[in-house]
Amino acid sequence: MKPQTLQQLADHVSGKVIGDPNVFIESVSTLHTAGPGQITFLSNVKYINDVKDTGASAVIVAQKSEVEINQIIAKDPYFALQQIVVLMHGHRKNKPVGISDKSNIAETATLGEGCHVQDFVTISDNVKVGKNCYFYPGVFIGQDTTIGDDCILYPNAVVFENCVIGDRVIVQSNASIGEDGFGFSTHNGEHYKIPQIGRVILEDDVEIGVSAGIERGALDDTVIGKGTKIGDQVAIGHGTIIGPHCLLVPKVGISGSTEVGHHCVFGGQVGVAGHLKIGDMVRVGAQSGVAGNLESGKSYLGGPAIEASRAKRAMVMLPYLPEMKKRIKALEKKIEKLTADKSSE
Amino acid sequence: MKPQTLQQLADHVSGKVIGDPNVFIESVSTLHTAGPGQITFLSNVKYINDVKDTGASAVIVAQKSEVEINQIIAKDPYFALQQIVVLMHGHRKNKPVGISDKSNIAETATLGEGCHVQDFVTISDNVKVGKNCYFYPGVFIGQDTTIGDDCILYPNAVVFENCVIGDRVIVQSNASIGEDGFGFSTHNGEHYKIPQIGRVILEDDVEIGVSAGIERGALDDTVIGKGTKIGDQVAIGHGTIIGPHCLLVPKVGISGSTEVGHHCVFGGQVGVAGHLKIGDMVRVGAQSGVAGNLESGKSYLGGPAIEASRAKRAMVMLPYLPEMKKRIKALEKKIEKLTADKSSE
Amino acid sequence: MKPQTLQQLADHVSGKVIGDPNVFIESVSTLHTAGPGQITFLSNVKYINDVKDTGASAVIVAQKSEVEINQIIAKDPYFALQQIVVLMHGHRKNKPVGISDKSNIAETATLGEGCHVQDFVTISDNVKVGKNCYFYPGVFIGQDTTIGDDCILYPNAVVFENCVIGDRVIVQSNASIGEDGFGFSTHNGEHYKIPQIGRVILEDDVEIGVSAGIERGALDDTVIGKGTKIGDQVAIGHGTIIGPHCLLVPKVGISGSTEVGHHCVFGGQVGVAGHLKIGDMVRVGAQSGVAGNLESGKSYLGGPAIEASRAKRAMVMLPYLPEMKKRIKALEKKIEKLTADKSSE
Predict the structure, then answer these.
(1) Cross-chain residue pair A310–B319, CB shorter than 8 Å
(2) I need a labelling partner for B44 at 20 to 30 A (CA). Which of A294, B117, B150, C2 fits?
(3) Residue of A12, A191, A238, A263 marked active site
């Protein structure tokens, strides 16, 4: 899009200009790489000294910086950045292709108006797709699955049969939605596959990362709540329910039949056992292993995960274990001597 | 399928009816969500109090419950459940499509009778496929690979060249079988790729999860033993041999040239180093890191993994580390005082 | 290829023959499985006793073995092995297929001479591909992406738009390059997607494993340095820069905006937080969690990762925690008694 003045950008984010409101901004960049004609942002006050070294023409800040630079003061600079990137760069433009005749769309499937289907896409029997959806090459949709409006399925994404996908859902490349849950009954030393008859429901505004796997329910459905964003290579077990507006960072794994509340944030590589109840607004630090229920509003860390502040105090102590053992030994010797001295008195 | 009487179901699983043998059962559900016409199950006695709250028409139990509800008594309720779900719901029905002319099957490839190949499937030179196999869209089979009878390859599953797949093997979507092992020779600071000339052998009844990766052997073969089930996003290194009837839960990673015995169970996110020997019937708890050989029949936990009971005792102690350090310091002070008092006597 | 004499192989790797220079070698195998006509290798002196049990006709060693067996003495036996496997077995032969008319190549895309494109491949607008590249079925290349010479993209690999791939790059099956970074601005409890306008740059000789995900940059580019090899199911965050000649073993996860130096080696399942600086030649042990900057040339281990030698000393102490606690308690009792005795004197 064409360049904007700093004032135009400030108006767009309900912010206030410090400096020259007429400077033209052409694009967005980071503090360290930005140059003339670019705007950057300071989301964390601890980098404030870096502002004076930036080559940017302007910076978005939460509070006025004393550095001599054009500024937009915005309450939430990171959200202002998001709005400005959308304004100036926009989301990915998916090429209008209509319905490719090299795709395979079942006669019983229905697509709303404005849908685009690239080559090598398979849409199976009785699939219902809303308006303005975009299917990249290699996408597979199993029979009886329903998809809402404005969804994007990236190359080689797979959605199995009988799933329900809301509006504005994004499924990244090579992700799998609705594969069989890992459900076997072991009898006389052999594992018998239990048909997985539950569904996967992805509510509105969900995003699923590349090579993620969302197992369909064994009996009950697996549900990903509205607005929840799931990173690359995340695995969600069968029958698990993730509440709305959660962030599951790449490589998280959650076992089956667990319930997670709303607005939870799980760090990278976190593992959660099955059949647990995780409250609302729970934060779990990277690589933690959750083995029990977690309370709403708290932060957890470690394996097994305990309250984060307590876990941190314990973790920093770990390297001192050998020293602690030595000190115990030294104490034992001294006590022995004191006791011996005493009895020989 | 049509509804069954409770007696019919009990007969099917060699179980015994308590209550009304003529009640009709239409489907299977979980304890908490089941309603009239549904049967549910109690696999763990600790949930026995939940039985009285279920809306189900009947419940499968190991021992007679005192709750007033129709019951099937079965030795192994979870196995009975499996049999009943198969009876009433069945495994996934793969639509009969014959051989799509939008697939690409090499002239030198052979397929047994009853195979179905969907669009956009590639079957390369000299591939031999048995009877009644089903290939979903986007599947790729490399040259000289052999596949047995009754296998299912889900969308975008990839099997590289010269692999051997037994009967009734299931490969879930976006999984890779027989990709190059992570084998490089580092010389003068550069990594030289070592051609990976081993194969992957998946024995009968193996299942491989979505986005899993089974590396082909560097020189020797990688082998997954009969009946072993491998979860989503599991990685198996080159030349590793997994015995029969193991369960590798999602996100397990096993490095190369390790040998795992039969009937082992590895929890989620377990990592195993290379060149190790893991015995038979070994259980490794979630997120453990296995750095040495493990003995048959034992349970292990932790990083590095040690015997599970010992690991658990140590893990629960971790949060008390700061307190322990304080107590050591207090002791040191008291000893110092006692010693000083003594020498001043 | 036809058999080679031991002398020919020795000459090929600038090695020296001990024993019969005229013995014919037909293929390469491991110490334990090799038979007549095969050559094997000893990369680690600790297995030297196994040499006498091998059935191989010859063995590659660093120093002359006293065992009565034909030998090639090579400075770096593992590198000699690599050279011999390439000589005798070669890298994978990709079948010459030309440009399939069942692929979809945009009119505005250009391919250098010697390229092969299999069925069901999509090459989008303005893509520029160098010479002798090979695209397996199901590959997707987004618009404006540039690919160098001699690259191989395996089945269902996905490269998003506007990425830059060097020469001799290998992307394994089902991997994703350039998907959106996990970038959201949370405002009033909802997560707003930030358009990810950076690129992914894979420099020359990079290899990316199956189902790996390399996020495109939010604003700056994500870069994988020359010669770096990335294992299966690795995740690299947006804007992260990995230096040249690193080895990232399967299942490593590195968050966004982190800088990693050259010749670093990260073990399986290692996690690295975002916005960190990792030096050159850093080694991080399997399953470690890196939460701070790391110094060049050092080895690290643990969660959080500390210097490896110190971490190992602490880790072996962990199982003794319950015992340590008991000993502290015993000391406290003794001290109490000593103090009581003293005051009653």
Answers:
(1) yes
(2) A294
(3) A238
